[in-house]
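Q: What does the assembly look like in three dimensions?
Context provided by user:
Components: three
Sequences:
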Amino acid sequence: MTEHKDYAGSKMGMWLFLFTEILLFGGLFLLYSAYLHRYPGEFHEAGKTENLVLGGANTVILIGSSFTVALSITALRLGKIKHCLILLGLTVVLALSFLVNKFFEWSAKFSQGIYPGSEHMKTLPAGENVFNSLYFAMTGLHGLHVIIGSVLLSVVAVFVARGRVNRDDFVILENAGLYWHLVDLIWIFLFPLFYLIA
Amino acid sequence: MEHESKSPHILSYGFLTGIFAVLMVLTATTIIVSRIELGFMNVVVALSVASAKAALVVFFFMHLKYENWTLKIMVLLAFVLLAICIGFTFFDIGPRT
Amino acid sequence: MDQAPPRNLGFLTPQAGKNTLLSWIGSTDHKRIGLLYMACILTMFAVGVGIGLTLRLKLITPGNHLLAPQTYNALFTLHGVIMIFMVVIPSIPASFGNIFLPLQIGAEDVSFPRLNLFSWWLYVLGSSLALISIFTGNGPPDTGWTFYVPFSAKTTTNVSLAVIAVFVLGFSSILTGLNFITTIHRLRAPGMTWGKMPLFTWSLYATAWIQVLVTPVLGITAMLIFAERVLNLGLFDPGRGGDPLLYQHLFWIYSHPAVYIMILPAMGVISDIVPVFARKQIFGYKMIAFSSLAIAFAGSLVWAHHMFTSGMSDLAIWVFSLLTFIVAIPSAIKVFNWVATLHRGAIALEPPLLYALGFIFMFSVGGLTGLVQGAAGTDIHVHDTYFIVGHFHYVIFGGTGLGMFAAMHYWFPKIFGRMYDKTKAFISFWIILVGMNLLYFPMFVLGLEGMPRRYYDYLPQYATGQFLSTVGSWILAAGMAIMFANLIASIRNGRPVGSNPWGGASLEWSVSSPPPANNFTTEPVVTRGPYDFDGVVVDD
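A: Here is the predicted structure of the complete assembly.
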């Protein structure tokens, strides 16, 4: 049996998987659009409760992490294993920073009585209630993907360190990078919808 | 199927840094513009800038600019379908709410 | 008895030195995985049929209490969930698609064999979770397979576990689709251009795109029900600003294209069978291939025709009704082309063709009644009545079901290297056809006369139709029992056959029956088209 790896096929498979993630989040974007249309004023009001500093910082962090993972692929392809590992490490550190910021944001909301199903939320105007529910759903699902991506990148870093992923066979790193860029892409849209709506 | 040679195109550190810089500029822009009261246009501008940022990530960081047409069409198909799903829902939401 | 030379069992050959069970459930051979799916799907089908027969028994007369009302609600929910997610959606692609896609394009296996095995394990996990949800907590879900809010958010039955099961099953479907798309793009043998692929392969391609792109929407919908129940998220709660209709939009954005996942592969089977038994080139190959893609695309635009009575805007009703009529066109093209292929062909009325003809009849009836529903005005009258139940059983059971049976009778000799008893196959076909029509045709009448679906009991005026329908269910069950008994017994006892008992021209008929483990000893170079019968030798 012939054993040749299919580089283009492997990449195609990863892109197809990314489409599923786009459509998965797409359902939530559909809900957001519909409710924004219905409650424009209240979304504007509720947006004021968002922390623009943390949100903006997270945007820079995540785009930065996309930058570092793209660099890591270049590094590997140029044979610079050490650079590659440092850049991958940096990517994961940035990812974890993102999660730390998120933790602070969510904690702040919880302490204000804003969490799914809270009594306080029920007292808010309908549109603000929906905005907050969407906030938790969308940033929650996104955060889950940040965690998954971090684990994925860490595993790939181990593969790179062991030589299983190298300058001649790097599709696994590229595919992990693609997944990470998707996580960034989703945030690029979440940021204005939740933080710039005020 | 012929064995395609691996993509020879490597994006240099410098080029990637350039893209990152543009993304930072766009991020700063969108934050600044959001502080100006433009009404409905605020959403339009914010989403346009987001789309521009997304395009940079997709075409360069994700290397799509250098991939074959098959893949490019597939990506387009996925986004078109999402647009249809959201758009057609507005046939209902638009008049009703 | 003579000592016959030991038969070459190809990929079915027990693997020396390996635990038999592990050599199957740990196999990355697409043919074994396909058979694993087949066994599970047919088992779940039997469960679903059992539930269906029980429901029909309750409904045989008005006023009886054979089942408690809560049980009745749970049973029709389970019937739908099992049949749709565990049987029909995977049915042909996961079983016959897995076995024959690589063979038809001249490949050794699919692009991602280990992912393929993982898909099967996900299917097993999802099905197990769904079955467990029957027995734990407050009992099986009673919401109907559509899980509409607000009831699905509030009912104390085991909806949470059931939607997790649905999510897992959806993931399995997505990965299969992803695998097939990549395989078809990347692994076609030299000479196997897009224009030489069998139409079954084309149908799997179109289906795979639907699987990959819309199943995630089911995923998010399932997650949202879970979030409503467990986190009290309130996104669809009108009391907190939510819109229950948005749930329906999200649900049907998946579930309408899902019916094309169900029917396209069956249509592909028919497109492969008809030319072989008419000994004639298929009429309009390009149009049939194109129509599969057109159905996949257009079918993604029409979901809200399930919502005409929901309180949607008039504009949406108008638009979706119009679009629904457009979707009918590519399906009609296929039916026309099949009939045109048969016209003046050298018809060999073998069991596969018989089931294919049954498909064409049943699907046409079902499809035409779909037009009554697609027209918003008439849909107001028939929505949520037995008319709908009749329609979808005609297209899903009469369509995909008969398509599956056709595929079984067509490819059985290839998979097992034996032929079944054709007389029993004929008899079972006719019993099935009579039973199916007796079971489902009265439903159109009942629906038009106003009997709602999912009702526990009914007025005496509907008694005749319901009685006939239940009798039909018994006849249908009997026919299927004979059919399966015939096939299962023939696995061991059937007359051995060679590589090409039907004289097919597509690549799977060029290898031995059963196919060898690595499919092709040397990579095939394709020169003939899939329905080009010149020089094809029947090897019985």
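Follow-up: Residues 126-162 of chain A form the longest helix (37 residues).
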